[in-house]
């Protein structure tokens, strides 16, 4: 039997996780539609596309997919190696900075530029973000790979129907909202791309501006959450001091 999720799901943490998964879906849709059918977040898809392309002897974009996969792995490895020195453990929001800067650069790059110069660095930055943000209020999740989230969803619902413990139901609903957020990110860019079809520069610029808006929102949410936790800690300490004085 799995352990029950203990911590209460805070509104700020949930909101932050939803926007991160939304951005992952948005970026995946962008690179898949605009940048050569390559995924920067869902690396399983890249492995499938790469394997099928090799079997069918379609090697036109093989280098871009291989480099994207390797750069994502390098991003995960790099942050795991240096996260304490870079203070990512205490401030995971810092991992968003490279992705925000790269998004700003992409906004001024025409679509004629080869994908291999843009998609792999984007995958590296996505690897950083995926490694830095790995839980929502104590519940482990992934903002880039939806397969694991789907599995966790069904495990939570299965445990709820078996034990009737409501924490499992809350956990399952959290994962459903994360999956929905990723799908909404994909759908949003697809609809946005249809409206801006044929306008490459506007498309890239809009992609950049939207991501920067999301990162700004994530920063504010993380700041609000930190303030809320500080207030809770202060209240608990105050209560403990009062009990000590009474005793």
Mean pLDDT: 76
Total E-strand runs: 2
What would the principal axes of the Cα set say about the shape?
Answer: globular
The Cα radius of gyration reads 20 Å
Would you mind describing this structure in some detail?
With about 250 residues, the chain is an all-alpha fold. The chain contains 8 helices and 2 strands; from the N terminus they run αααααββααα. The protein has helices spanning about 10-35, 45-55, 60-80, 95-105, 120-130, 145-165, 165-195, 200-245; strands spanning about 135, 140. A two-stranded antiparallel sheet has the order 1-2. Helix 1 runs parallel beside helix 7 (about 165-195). The relative contact order is 0.17.
Layout of helices and strands, plus pairs?
Layout: H1 11-34, H2 43-55, H3 62-82, H4 96-106, H5 119-132, E1 135-136, E2 139-140, H6 146-163, H7 166-195, H8 200-246
Antiparallel strand pairs: 1-2
Short recap of the structure:
The chain is built from eight helices and two strands, in the order αααααββααα. With 247 residues, the protein is mainly alpha-helical.
Key phrases:
about 250 residues, two-stranded antiparallel sheet, mainly alpha, 8 helices
């Amino acid at each position: 039997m799995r352990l029950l999720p203990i911590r209460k799901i805070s509104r700020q943490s949930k909101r932050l996780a939803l926007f991160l998964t939304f951005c992952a879906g948005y970026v995946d849709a962008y690179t898949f539609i605009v940048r050569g059918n390559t995924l920067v977040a869902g690396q399983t898809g890249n492995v499938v596309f790469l394997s099928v392309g090799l079997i069918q002897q379609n090697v036109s974009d093989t280098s871009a997919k291989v480099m994207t996969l390797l750069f994502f792995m390098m991003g995960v490895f790099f942050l795991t190696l240096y996260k304490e020195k870079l203070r990512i453990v205490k401030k995971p929001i810092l991992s968003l900075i490279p992705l925000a800067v790269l998004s700003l650069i992409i906004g001024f790059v025409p679509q004629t530029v080869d994908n291999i110069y843009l998609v792999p660095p984007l995958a590296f930055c996505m690897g950083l973000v995926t490694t830095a943000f790995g839980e929502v209020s104590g519940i482990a999740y992934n903002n880039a790979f939806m397969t694991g989230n789907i599995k966790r969803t069904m495990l939570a619902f299965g445990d709820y129907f078996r034990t009737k413990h409501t924490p499992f139901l809350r956990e399952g609903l959290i994962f459903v909202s994360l999956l929905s957020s990723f799908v909404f990110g994909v759908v949003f860019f697809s609809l946005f791309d249809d409206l801006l079809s044929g306008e490459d520069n506007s498309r890239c610029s809009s992609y950049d501006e939207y991501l920067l808006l999301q990162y700004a929102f994530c920063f504010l949410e993380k700041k609000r959450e930190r303030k809320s936790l500080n207030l809770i800690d202060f209240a608990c300490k105050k209560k403990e001091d009062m009990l000590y004085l009474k005793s």
